[in-house]
Automatic annotation (TrEMBL):
A GO molecular-function descriptor: trehalose-phosphatase activity
InterPro entries linked: HAD-like_sf (IPR036412), HAD-SF_hydro_IA (IPR006439), HAD-SF_hydro_IIB (IPR006379), HAD_sf (IPR023214), OTSB-like (IPR044651), PGP-like_dom2 (IPR023198), Trehalose_PPase (IPR003337)
Assigned keywords, A-Z: Hydrolase, Magnesium, Metal-binding
Family named by the database record: Belongs to the trehalose phosphatase family.
Naturally occurring in which organism (per UniProt): Lamprobacter modestohalophilus
Annotated pathway: Glycan biosynthesis; trehalose biosynthesis
GO terms of biological process kind: trehalose biosynthetic process
Function: Removes the phosphate from trehalose 6-phosphate to produce free trehalose.
Name of the protein in question: Trehalose 6-phosphate phosphatase
Domain of life the protein comes from: Bacteria
Cofactor(s) demanded: Mg(2+)
Record Gene3D superfamilies: HAD superfamily/HAD-like, Putative phosphatase, domain 2, Trehalose-6-phosphate phosphatase related protein, domain 2
Length: 517
């Protein structure tokens, strides 16, 4: 690891998508062998015909040009056409002896599975190590492959529990996604991880794969050059090319475990003569997380601490909840509230509804209606309709029912335009597919409230993934971000407090300092 270069940064990226064959597993050689056996056998059996070329499959040149990284059917078709052979497509369940594209594709698959079962699957140790390092640093990870054998390969390689998402050829077909070099599968996987392509990286060893990632406008496209393809990978859209994944490091600017904020002195020093401006998340920050959202009531002492603080400094609550819900729960009229993750903002002299959010209202209502109907029989599901989001709570859902909920949310999102899926603590969420989050809302508030000057020190406190957007925004602005979490975990925050009680103590302490300033 000594010479690893810092390539991934949580400031710029949330997720990393890995191709399977040739990046994570050494299955490329087995694929090449299965393709070669298929084509060599087929071409030698086929009667010589004018205009056809029956020379043997070149497991380097032909492999790369026609089949590497492509869906199986396209691989068969492109190679045979290059040899002057135009077979009918046939049916997906054609048996291996049928002389159709599907029949030959199924023959190749049977050969591949046979080889894997005989020999097992070897992994690239550096790739597996990188996935583990990324996960420890808070990146979401996915395998995105045209292979329909993904699950078998990951199991054989012992990697089946390592990723947040597997998007394979079976799912791509069911969703009618075009294969690489089209961008569809990568874009879909990024969305299923709750992130925009520009905040995700792709790691690929095939030119079809780097083309796909480049067409999808991913934030970073990494090519892995295992066999002298550096120039082609760069020409087809790779931003950087490495020989191996051990060369890839993670920027150390991101701390995996923010230190506990144990002494007010730590931030008193940074406050100096500055005016603090406080931005607070609600659930998990001002109240403990509880089983039912309606039970997350603010304590009297926290309400008093908030009211006192708001007399000394600007104070806003930025929540994932609906605006009316969170303002009623806090119950202090003089505060500023941002609901639905900042799409809906209201304060004594302030009102903003993000126009792009209004455009998505119909889709949100349809999503809520469809999910209510579809999940009516799943015990424990709670659907929370907010003005600019729909949350599907699964805290009380049995583990075995979770895949059904996940699939319903995913299919609902795909059936409607203009929504994206994000997550949270034991919930799935559909939001307008707009580049707007708590970080953007925080920046908007600082500007609207005239708090952008050097004499102001913004502080943001939050506990959830959605608060990471605000932590990152504050880093750029030089503010102080504080994660509220019992345990240390990867975060862009500067410090950590353990629980809402600590938050209350910090509010009281800041209020006292300001009173005496
Ligand atoms: O941004 P926040 O103010 O933290 O809101 C995030 C979500 O909070 C609520 O759900 C979470 O808290 C519930 C009560 O403790 C808990 O039961 C649930 O599992 C948590 O996800 C709220 O209901 C959501 O709308 C917010 O998005």
């Amino acid at each position: 690891m000594a010479d690893a270069q810092p390539v991934f940064s949580r400031e710029r990226l949330d997720a990393v998508l890995f191709d399977l064959d040739g990046v994570l597993t050494r299955t490329a050689e087995i694929h090449a062998e299965a393709w070669k056996r298929l084509f060599d056998d087929y071409l030698s059996e086929r009667p010589a015909t004018a205009g056809e070329d029956h020379s043997r499959f070149d497991d380097d040149r032909d492999y790369r040009r026609y089949v590497d990284g492509r869906p199986r059917l396209k691989g068969v078709k492109h190679f045979l056409l290059a040899r002057g052979i135009d077979l009918p497509e046939g049916e997906p369940d054609d048996p291996p002896e049928h002389e159709t594209l599907h029949g030959l594709g199924n023959r190749k698959n049977a050969l591949f599975r046979e080889l894997i079962e005989q020999r097992g699957v070897a992994v690239y140790a550096c790739a597996v190590d990188l996935v583990r390092r990324l996960r420890r640093s808070g990146f979401r990870t996915a395998v995105v492959t045209a292979s329909k054998n993904c699950e078998l390969i990951l199991q054989q390689a012992g990697l089946d529990g390592l990723f947040d998402k597997h998007l394979d050829g079976v799912e791509a077909e069911a969703l009618e996604l075009a294969g690489k070099p089209d961008a569809d599968t990568f874009v879909e996987a990024a969305h299923q991880l709750g992130c925009e392509p520009k905040r995700a990286a792709v790691i690929e060893d095939a030119t079809a794969g780097v083309m796909a990632a480049s067409r999808g406008h991913f934030g970073l496209v990494i090519g892995i050059d295992r066999d002298g393809q550096r120039e082609s990978l760069l020409n087809k859209g790779a931003d950087r090319v490495f020989d191996d994944l051990c060369q890839i490091g993670i920027e150390s600017a991101h701390r995996e475990t923010p230190p506990l904020l144990e002494e007010m002195a730590l931030i008193s020093d940074r406050l100096a003569d500055k005016q603090p401006a406080l931005f607070l998340d609600y659930d998990g920050t001002l109240t403990p997380i509880v089983e039912r959202p309606a039970d997350a009531q603010l304590s009297h002492s926290m309400r008093r601490a908030l009211r006192d603080a708001a007399e000394q400094m600007p104070l806003a609550v930025i929540s994932g909840r609906d605006l009316d819900d969170v303002s009623a729960l806090v119950g202090i009229d003089s505060l500023i509230y941002a609901g639905s993750h900042g799409f809906d903002i209201r304060g004594p002299d302030l009102r903003m509804e993000l126009p792009e959010g209004i455009d998505a209202l119909d889709a949100l209502q349809q999503a809520a209606d469809r999910l209510e109907a579809r999940l009516a029989d799943v015990a424990g599901v709670r659907i929370e309709r907010k003005r600019f989001a729909v949350a599907i709570h699964v805290r009380q859902v049995a583990d075995e029912d979770l895949p059904q909920v996940r699939e319903a949310v995913d299919q609902t999102r795909r059936s409607l335009d203009g929504l994206r899926q994000t997550g949270g603590k034991r919930l799935f969420e559909l939001r307008p597919d707009v580049d707007w989050d708590k970080g953007q809302a925080l920046r908007w508030l600082l500007s609207e409230l005239g708090l952008e000057g050097p004499d102001v020190l913004p502080l943001y406190l939050g506990d959830d993934d959605t608060d990471e957007d605000a932590f990152r925004a504050l880093r750029r602005l030089g503010g102080i971000s504080i994660l509220v979490s019992e345990t240390a975990r990867p975060s862009a925050a500067d410090y950590r407090l353990r629980a809402p009680d600590d938050v209350e103590a910090l509010l009281t302490s800041l209020t006292e300092s300001e009173r005496h300033a």
